[in-house]
Amino acid sequence: MPKSRLCGGGDDDEDDEDLEEEHVTKIYYCSRTHSQLAQFVHEVQKSPYGTSVQLVNLGSRQNLCINPEVTRLGNVQMMNDRCLEMQKNKHEKREKALASQTKRSRAVTTATCPFSGFENMAAMRDEVLVKVRDVEELLVLGRETNTCPYYSARMAIPAAQVVVLPYQSLLHASTRKASGIKLKDQIVIIDEAHNLMDTITNIHSTEISGAQLCRAHSQLSQYCERYRSRLKAKNLMYIKQILFVLEGLVRTLGGKMGQNPNTQSSTAGSELLTINDFLFKAEVDNINLFKVQKYFEKSMISRKLCGFTEKYGGTGVTTHTNCKKQENRRTEGLIRFLQTLQSKPQDEQEVAVENRPVMASPMMLVESFLFALTSANQDGRVVIQKQEYVSQSSLKFLLLNAAVHFSQILQESRAVIIAGGTMQPVADFKEQLLFSAGVNEERILEFSCGHVIPPENILPIILCTGPSGQQLEFTFQRRDSPQMMEETGRIISNLCNIVPGGVVCFFPSYDYEKKILGHWESTGVLQRLQTKKRIFQEPKKANQVEQVLSDYSKCIQHCCNTGGGQTGALLFSVVGGKMSEGINFSDDLGRCIVMVGMPYPNIKSPELQEKMAYLDKHMTPVGGKSPGRALVESLCMKAVNQSIGRAIRHRGDYASIVLCDHRYGRLGTLQKLPEWIRSSTRTHTTFGPAFASVRRFFQEKRQRV
Ligand code: SF4
To answer: What sequence ranges are listed for the domain Helicase ATP-binding (predicted)?
Structure first.
């Protein structure tokens, strides 16, 4: 059984194997979501290798834990903490049991997980390797045998030939180490990699709020007061340094430690700084953060604070400014905790404990933040985001160069396959992720193949003008004009007259969607559209997506089966929104995808500006364009490709794609469409022929059925 210790800045734990097992040559296959991983496992099961390959599917504790006491916590961080606490207790129990063989010792009463017995897990590891199973099947096996699937699966890694795992487990070095993943000379497949750079950046970016900083300070102060007499002078020094750093960080948010961050007001605004400038501003540039970081790792102080907080309930914000020994403060956390228990009715207490929205110790986040500061000096920035109150303000570490963290994977592995259905455009991808990580052009092999659907099943058109001859250019300056919005309404209305089933219309932003729908409402366009299609709109809340999709699909089914005035449904959505990724509009659900305008990212955002400036400084121009400008275009077209890729999901499927904006016809833009769409794309300078081609396309399909 692995023994646990704290990882260096990752948000997972870090366990080392007691025994170094030999790792057979294997394929690590990772993808973005658990359903994509499950799909891959099901394909392996159906393949000729389904009965012979040794495959293990890794997951998080959220997916694989079977201990109800832990799963009820819900929050992944709290589940990790609770499980690791129990693993620690188990090791201590074992050590004490050994000690008690030689001398009498106190009975150990701390809880351990009943599902983590070594013999059972070793048996389950062997069982896992005999048959290919997805996460659900692993859970069933774990419940049947009362054995932890999470650790059993990890134990199976060395002997497995294929390891299936989520992005985080592969792309984050600490998590990799924690899971026992060794990439040396192995083959890595990264699927659904169209957003790989963003994913790496997000995994390594950290955000921490003023409230969390104050809470971490408060907890550490209380910890320091309680154990002061038992702390070594050196450890006490590091604790004081961490408290000092926290005070500096809160100062950058306009706050002062010792005052309530919920009432301390601040002037709203944001500032973006290099790491050196940030440390200088926080007045902590004299602290050796590398040593502090080492102390975090060695002392496991973040995890100790979790245990301390759980024991004494010191999660509130106090007004300590130092850790002077004051007897009356030693038990402050405990007293406050008891007071809160007394002041609440029983039911409320239970709800509060079960639904605690914050992790047990925000010090974990502080540790991640400091780790980020020390690991990417030239390639990182800090965004200071000030809100009305210090508690709501935040510090965000921004990684500008994803290659810093990807290079280790490229160096260690034998081969890395980066795959995806909508990988275009790849030029900036190669420049920013591969060349920057030190890979030579000759080591990169590009392979692109056609889509499984025949070319006659797709009709992509670029529409340069609308039915009344209005040029379609949805720039910020022009798109709000009533003429442009009305022309767009006429296009959708015409399409709805001839397209069967579902039409999905993507707008470039929520703001624009609101504006144009408001205009259509007041001018009667929506009423006109409703005579042909029932109208649906992407919901505001993520938990309503499923319901809207279900209603949308039922409506289309009903219309297709019964006929009548309405021929299907029209769904309004936003590029990059809740329905532009991971949701499939196959068959009648998406017979036509309409893109209104080009979804360029907000070029005024300080984060994007900094990234553009960084690329312009460090990268060579791509196709005659500055790398910063190329990034903006690439982000736009990646978002477009994701959205239009929602339709045509299998060989027999067919759909038309209407790109409304003459700028799609520019050569550089056109080249950024996936090959299987680009090769069939026609640019229409007038609406008539475009409309006729869509009508013909669906007539032919109808005749063939
Ligand atoms: S050992 Fe396994 S079953 Fe037990 S708490 Fe941890 S993850 Fe859950």
So the answer is: 1-243
